[in-house]
UniProtKB/TrEMBL annotation, chains A, B:
Protein name: GntR family transcriptional regulator
Domain spans labelled HTH gntR-type: 2-69
Keywords in alphabetical order: DNA-binding, Transcription, Transcription regulation
PROSITE patterns per UniProt: HTH_GNTR
PANTHER family: GLUCONATE OPERON TRANSCRIPTIONAL REPRESSOR (PTHR43537:SF24), TRANSCRIPTIONAL REGULATOR, GNTR FAMILY (PTHR43537)
InterPro entries: GntR_C, TF_FadR/GntR_C, Tscrpt_reg_HTH_GntR, WH-like_DNA-bd_sf, WH_DNA-bd_sf
Domain of life: Bacteria
Amino acid sequence: MVTTTGRAHVALRESILRGDLAPGAHLGEVELAERLGVSRTPVREALSRLAAEGLVEVLPHRGARVSSFSPDDLDGIFDVRLALEPRATARAALRATAEDLDALDDLARRMLEIGAPGPDQDLDAIVPLNRDFHARLLAVADAPALSAALANVVHTPIVLRTFHAYDPASLARSLAHHGEMVAALRAGDADWASAVMRSHIGNARAVMVRNR
Amino acid sequence: MVTTTGRAHVALRESILRGDLAPGAHLGEVELAERLGVSRTPVREALSRLAAEGLVEVLPHRGARVSSFSPDDLDGIFDVRLALEPRATARAALRATAEDLDALDDLARRMLEIGAPGPDQDLDAIVPLNRDFHARLLAVADAPALSAALANVVHTPIVLRTFHAYDPASLARSLAHHGEMVAALRAGDADWASAVMRSHIGNARAVMVRNR
DNA sequence: GCACCCTACGTTGCGTACAACGCTCCGGGA
DNA sequence: TCCCGGAGCGTTGTACGCAACGTAGGGTGC
């Protein structure tokens, strides 16, 4: 049986990631409990976990609210990504199995399809695919400490809702990077792979910074 | 007023850091609650937070236990430190105030004193000083995301109880590094500072790996 | 003799009630 | 008119009780 706390946790996280709960919004325990149909106890536990992930901040006796990030915060997050993700990608290049490569290839291809300019473009649908891609890459790297360090900082939400912010050229670059990364992994070239990841993050940072 | 949960949190963390609660030890909620003189509720909250920090692991319906780390885990942790701490040190070199430098200098000097071979050597007393030194360095770097990423992974505990594992030469090097780091910061030389930090971590890694 | 099931116990998960804290609004004084 | 103090309200923090899950032990059937 999956615990009620666990369900509350993922439900709240999804709400935040989706943007239903805006940054800075106050999170009343009773309100959330009623909305989820549970008591306050699992809600408190879930908020606790989300606080650990950095998605919400709790102030003693004053409740919780969705975290918001200043431009400086964002810049710092990109610094951490830049320090860790290329390293993970390099490791992944040495460890990826054929199955891993196919899965990543599939994700990259689908993102390219639905991200292409035209009537079928669906920027929102890219979000989960992109998340899966980076998550899978981390899993392949098989570096738990590194994944943990990233997970607690690189709150996908911020990155996630910004595909709308990409101009066409940046978006095309970003989607192309995924494909190139798979190629580098397939070649087992750690240097190439990590360089592509650095480009990928640099491109994203430019988009984020420009928009603030 | 500081909350009961907060006190339970720090009390348990200290117990783990001090080694009173050995890695792998099962943590019963009622037992902890009785020992701390509180109810199970704040204990559960505290365990939740400790789990987020990576100090304990909770298994649904099966309770919590103190995390233990395999040699591979340790290696991964050093990888993360190597990716992040030199970067933080470089930033610190550009931002340290005279006050910061004096504080760090003082810490480095005291560690050197009590770490010197002889009757006054006190390896246990180095631990908190070392923790303060690295914490202060992170604070000076003023990179919240970077600090958060490290905090959630580099559970000082592991590093902390290992000064006894240092052979004399490695210990001397480690203590000298602190002083050299201060010198590099004072010179405002980011490259130098980060290089010393890389050496510092490499030295520590060698000690840890050799002892396993 | 071995494997499986079933029962009983101890634990954790959740709900609810009460206590304590913080905020807001109102009133009094300077 | 502005500032300070206090009471009321809504919130969060903690305790406790019950229910559900996991585990270990003994018993039964093959």
